[in-house]
Design goal:
globular; mainly alpha; single chain
Length: 306
């Protein structure tokens, strides 16, 4: 229809798919391999993020939770969203390398963190938009907690500068070209039809994420683990924005045009609740329960996968 969709559509998943295609696979199998790889590498990223802080068993629980969350399965098998599937790889990597950066201030972690954020931006622009405010708050907390704030501030500035400049080939012309289209004056769909409700609760959110959130709140209050507060806060807020009760916020902001579907915020909840599941298991400190927990997580996903 003459619409310059490739001026605005995320490019990285297709670059990665083309690499697989050049290895000899046809287009359909290249997409399938990329979807499969998104599960594997996102699980590895979440494992290393949590295991670095809490140990191997909590890392394993978090990785399985991150992979088998209903939204992940819905995203791939029902929506077929290649961009969002690939984006899940880079969310844990950004935090993993930033944690290492703020503890060591080594250039390699700065480079890897910036590369990961740039990869997120070019994997799915809406996904990056949802995630960026959380990242900004996180780096602000790290700067305030740092023993050398000027150094932390400088490295944070360089991190954002490298991330945005290395992905500018995509986002800068996309924003500039909007003035030549009717994209911002058109609404893709009626966003109010896509809130989380009884009809799609189990398929998109599931029951394990609310269970993890409730247990995390109890853990934080009973053991005074206020380090969980940040993760809890952005996870709860993301779920709130998927519910009909948040309608006034959607009506008063550009969210309908920028995000389109309220249940997209569940992606942030999946990330946060996976980290929280690792913290919960580390608090239990009974390794034999790990197998039981993993079986429960996978069991709840079977009706969606079969």
């Amino acid at each position: 229809f003459g619409y310059p969709v490739l001026n605005f559509n995320y490019p990285l998943p297709f670059y990665l798919g083309e690499i697989i295609h050049l290895l000899g696979f046809d287009f359909v199998n290249s997409v399938k391999i990329l979807f499969g790889a998104s599960f594997i590498f996102s699980a590895l990223g979440m494992y290393f993020l949590v295991a670095k802080e809490l140990g191997k068993w909590p890392g394993l629980v978090a990785a399985v939770f991150y992979s088998y969350a209903p939204y992940r399965i819905f995203d791939i098998y029902r929506r077929g969203s290649l961009g969002e599937a690939v984006s899940f790889i880079f969310l844990p990597l950004i935090f993993l390398f930033l944690n290492q950066l703020f503890s060591t201030y080594k250039i390699r972690y700065l480079s890897l963190a910036a590369f990961s954020y740039a990869a997120l931006i070019t994997s799915h622009n809406i996904f990056a938009f949802l995630f960026s405010p959380i990242l900004f708050v996180y780096t602000a907390i790290k700067i305030l907690d740092s023993a050398c704030r000027p150094r932390a501030l400088l490295y944070s500035f360089i991190f954002y500068l490298l991330s945005l400049s290395s992905s500018a080939f995509f986002w800068f012309p996309a924003i500039y070209d909007l003035q030549f289209t009717k994209a911002m004056s058109r609404q893709v769909s009626n966003f109010s039809n896509y809130f989380l409700g009884l009809n799609n609760f189990s398929e998109i959110l599931g029951f394990l994420i609310p269970a993890v959130l409730i247990c995390s709140i109890i853990l934080m209050l009973s053991h005074k683990k206020y380090g969980l507060l940040f993760t809890l806060a952005f996870t709860l807020l993301s779920i709130f924005l998927t519910l009909p009760v948040s309608l006034p916020i959607w009506q008063a902001t550009p969210l309908p045009k920028l995000v389109q579907f309220p249940w997209r915020f569940i992606s942030i909840a999946v990330f946060g609740s996976a980290i929280l599941s690792g913290y919960l298991f580390s608090a239990i400190k009974k390794p034999f329960l790990c197998i039981v927990i993993l079986i429960v997580i996978i069991f709840f996903s079977f009706p969606l996968i079969k």
